[in-house]
Amino acid sequence: MSTTKRIAGAALAAALGVATLSACGEDAKDKPAGASDAPKSKTVTLVSHDSFNVTDTVLKEFEQQSGYTVKVLKSGDAGAALNQEILTKGTPRGDVFFGVDNTLLSRALDNGIFTPYEAKGLAGVKPEYVLDKEHRVTPIDSGDICVNYDKAYFADKKLAPPQTLDDLVKPEYKNLLVTENAATSSPGLGFLLASVGKYGEEGWKDYWSKLKANGVEVVDGWEQAYNERFSGSAGGKKAKGDRPLVVSYASSPPVEVLYGEPQPAEAPTGVSTGTCFRQIEFAGLLKGAKNEEGGKALVDFLIGKKFQEDMPLQMFVNPVVKDASLPELFTKHGVVIEKPENVAPETIAKNREQWVKAWTALVVK
Q1: pLDDT tens digits, residue range 59-90?
Q2: Alpha-carbon gap, residue 247 to 331, rounded angstroms
Q3: Of 114, 18, 20, which is closest to residue 74 (Cα–Cα)?
Q4: Contact 117, 303 (CB under 8 A)
Q5: What is the SS3 assignment for 116?
Q6: Residue 39's pLDDT is what?
């Protein structure tokens, strides 16, 4: 999502980012007479942001079937990881890059870090996610940045939770919302882009002026907003957070159920479905990859049904393949965002810096 998707507390952070999958080394077999001096690499390296995760058994099945050993090189958040690949263009640190999202896509493509490759199985991907017709990148997952609300707070106050961006500036929701800084946080940027998508270039600043007047609180990142300031999360309850509205993800309620102790029958948080911005994450074959064939096989795997159905409970994102099923946790406790806000990647690339500067001057300073 790239997106940095830290959508649970410490337990989720452990689930998403602690163990790096490492290769056992290349399988150096004896070369037949007349073979090249350079043996074919049996290691394929995936460069990713820190939130990449996959079930061991699913990964091992790919390794056994393909003959490749996968090494995952985690490189910070999506922006930092992408910056490193741009700096090493032509001599990449790996074979495939995963984690560039639609907020950063044009920057990646304009810098020419990918080799076009039309992945096997691409026809099974929902067409609205295929944003690059040259197939320099392949869509892998989607997720929605949305305002979450504390169900108990609104029930106690006998107040209907807000459902739209327009609702958030109403006086009954004054001093209730905490959001992340758009200059330092992926969900913060996504929420800014939701307002751009909704109100356009002419209207988003006026909207944020109203939101500021209505007492929106801005913090540096998701961890602080969700696990310290938000009253509805497990972490926020422990920290005595007093903001019942927070910018997070549509997948956050299922996470609260999964990691609840004891596990609740119903999610304690809800999603304001008219406040969302859709992130799409992509993978691409890096230009200059040492193991191009292995990289192609890995991209194919990432849009294969096995990985796509494993993803939701590993990274708390949605599959992009048409016939991939969601786990019961998502279908029971999650929500489907029918009409998220969107902004074209090329529009984001052209305006992102000036939007963030204007937002900072208006809201933070």
Answers
A1: 999 999 999 999 999 987 787 888 899 999 99
A2: 21
A3: 20
A4: no
A5: coil
A6: 54
b vs e for 231-266, b when ≥16 Cβ sit within 10 Å of the residue's Cβ? Answer: bbbbbbeeeebebbbbbbbbbbbbbbbbbeeeeeee
Alpha-helix runs per DSSP H in 1-125: 10-17, 56-66, 78-87, 105-110
**φ, ψ at 57 (rounded to 5°):** -65, -35
- pLDDT over 70 for what percent of the chain? 89
Q: Where are the alpha helices (DSSP H) in the chain?
A: 10-17, 56-66, 78-87, 105-110, 151-157, 186-213, 222-224, 234-238, 252-258, 292-302, 305-315, 328-333, 345-359
Structure tokens at 187: 């969900």
Are 11 and 261 in contact, with CB atoms under 8 Å apart? no
Is residue 260 classed as helix, strand or coil in its secondary structure? Answer: coil
Tokens 């209207």 locate to 203
Which spans in 214-339 are helix H? 222-224, 234-238, 252-258, 292-302, 305-315, 328-333
Q: Is the pTM of this model over 0.85?
A: no
- The tens digit of pLDDT for each residue in 119-163 reads 999 999 999 999 999 999 999 999 999 999 999 999 999 999 999
Could you give the CA distance from residue 30 to residue 66 in angstroms, rounded to a whole number?
Answer: 19
CA–CA separation, 155 vs 169, rounded Å? 20
Q: Are the C-beta atoms of residues 5 and 316 closer than 8 Å to each other?
A: yes
